[in-house]
């Protein structure tokens, strides 16, 4: 089975082709067009700009993934242009590009088209969904909408095999119950997982997500967007004897598994405001603040995760989402888990699969397809529904 995964929930236009044969998953190709440079100016993602860029990038990225997988074949003769007026009536630019593409190239041997339906920025999600619908209708290939968070979670279960780009998806019964920590630019959540496709949300952020906090603090410190990698880099450069800054660890001692990061951002702002302009601009202050913010976020995430490991007696801890690209978070959680719960298995995705990508969407789609899920209508939504699965 060959699956096309399409991801446009935020600022990456990411597509992948995944082949599943028995227990083996092979990434045939994956490409992404990042909009970081465009959004950098605004210090965060601007939904309407993201929507416009997805319209521009989807067809070129599709062409690239097909080409890379050796599935792009020119038609012998151009057989008319498909009518996409109704499906892409709001995406004029995409409509033109896709019509032209479809009139030139043969239908590829894809068995399933999948697209992120939620959660995400609605204008951005809709472009991907309408694009996927247009491909599905023209090529007569089934279509499945999937949950972005499930994709982030499942890539942590990929185990690389000896041959290049081939994986197995770990799901042995003894791995469950598992606990999944999802941390991205839009979400911070702890989920209990009883098996593939069986989830229950036990905690989530009440305001800002952890990635959002990294991004907002980076903007304040003039470190650019996305903030997570920039803060991590500065934090790693901190030397001993530099400024001592102590930030709060919001909700670290509450009995629930919820998070709150907007207070942390405000605490950074207060510290920043009380410093002289000379200190604020100094490299040593920026390094010290980056280090403390990173540590405060990691402390809260790790403390709540370990508490849930204890309470629910889980056999595995999984991590997923862009913030999991943070080396400090990965290693500290792994080390503390091994120290306190040596029997618990730890899984985090390979770094390139932490941030948004098309592979995670194709994997989530395959799992849902295997479980008999079929799409009737796809609705874009900014809300997560993974707890209802
Ligand atoms: O999962 P993702 O690509 O998009 C969403 O679904 O939101 O996550 C993006 C987030 C951004 O907030 C970015 O700053 C953060 O992941 N991020 C990091 C690192 N790399 C990306 N945060 C901390 N450390 C990193 N190394
Ligand atoms: Zn994401």
Characterise the protein shown here:
The structure is a single chain. The chain is of the alpha/beta class and 389 residues long. It folds into two domains: 2-156 and 352-370, ATPase, nucleotide binding domain (Nucleotidyltransferase, domain 5, 2-Layer Sandwich), CATH 3.30.420; 173-348, ATPase, nucleotide binding domain (Nucleotidyltransferase, domain 5), CATH 3.30.420.40. The protein has helices spanning 36-40, 47-68, 92-104, 122-139, 148-154, 210-220, 227-236, 262-274, 277-281, 283-312, 327-340, 358-370, and strands at 2-7, 12-21, 24-34, 112-118, 143-147, 158-160, 166-169, 178-183, 188-195, 198-204, 316-320, 345-347. A seven-stranded mixed sheet has the order 5-4-1-2-3-7-6, with helices on both faces. A five-stranded mixed sheet has the order 10-9-8-11-12, with helices on both faces. Strand 11, helix 11 (327-340) and strand 12 form a beta-alpha-beta unit. The longest helix is centred in the last third of the chain and has 30 residues, at 283-312. Zinc ion is lined by residues 148, 152, 184, 321-322, 356.
